[in-house]
Amino acid sequence: MKNSRPFDTQKREQWLTFVQELSPEADPRAIRLVGQMRTAAQALYRINEGSLTAAGLSYAKYRLLMSLLFAERFQGDGALNPSEISEWLGVSRNAISGLIRDLETDGYIERQLDAADRRRFLIGLTAAGREIVREHAGRHFAAVGACFSQMSVAEQQQLSQLLDKLTNNIMEMK
Q1: Assigned CATH for 37-173
Q2: Alpha carbons 19 and 22: distance in angstroms, whole number
Q3: What's residue 114's pLDDT?
Q4: Among candidates 117, 127, 131, which has minimal Cα distance to 81?
Q5: CA-to-CA distance for 30 and 1, rounded, in angstroms?
Q6: CA 14, 151, 47, 92 torsion-angle sign
Q7: What pTM did the predictor assign?
């Protein structure tokens, strides 16, 4: 059977050759790194999603609930408006609206009018929302931690620094 894994060395080399045929000035190291990062990111996403299956939550919904719990712990009442949630999670307002609607239907969050501006509403956790986050946090974080178990602490710190450096460079390019 033909090996079709995304990190297949032969396929990766063929891809790099193909890209350089299309664009001879392309940096093959950068192309390779982007491919490796995409493969790793997709694998991490699948781990995140899989760790929350028992909760009946997608990773996106869980992130929203975690953000509200964090805000509750460190920002007073913990209620956030949809724009704040969107900015915090780096997700469009449309995507946040759909998540809010679903989580509200599930009974994990509730909307309330903003006392300071009655044209807006705030999103807060319900008791059920707090409970599901706390109930599944350990399993979720254990699954994520296992992804990095083959790296030493120093390697994890180095990876973190390199990703910060890459992110800062990308943000400066915008």
Answers
A1: 1.10.10.10
A2: 5
A3: 76
A4: 117
A5: 30
A6: negative
A7: 0.78
**DSSP code of residue 55:** G
CB 61 within 8 A of CB 102: yes
Rounded distance between C-alpha atoms, residue 129 and residue 66, angstroms = 9
Q: Residue 4 has which token pair?
A: 């079709």
CA angle 121, 124, 128 (to 5 degrees): 140
112-164 pLDDT, tens digit each = 987 777 788 999 999 999 999 999 999 899 999 999 999 999 999 999 999 99
Residues 6 or more apart whose CB falls under 8 angstroms from that of 174 comprise: none
Q: 36 to each of 40, 56, 89, how far by Cα in Å? A: 6, 30, 24
> What is the Cα 42 distance to its own chain's centre?
11
Token digits of residue 72: 């509750």
121 sits in the region (left: phi over 0; alpha: psi -120 to 50; else beta) called beta
Contacts of 114 (CB under 8 A, 6+ apart): 81, 120, 121, 122
Q: Is the dihedral of CA 133, 135, 140, 146 positive or negative?
A: positive
* CA–CA–CA angle 135, 49, 104 (5° rounding): 60
- How many CB atoms are located within 10 Å of the residue 16 CB? 16
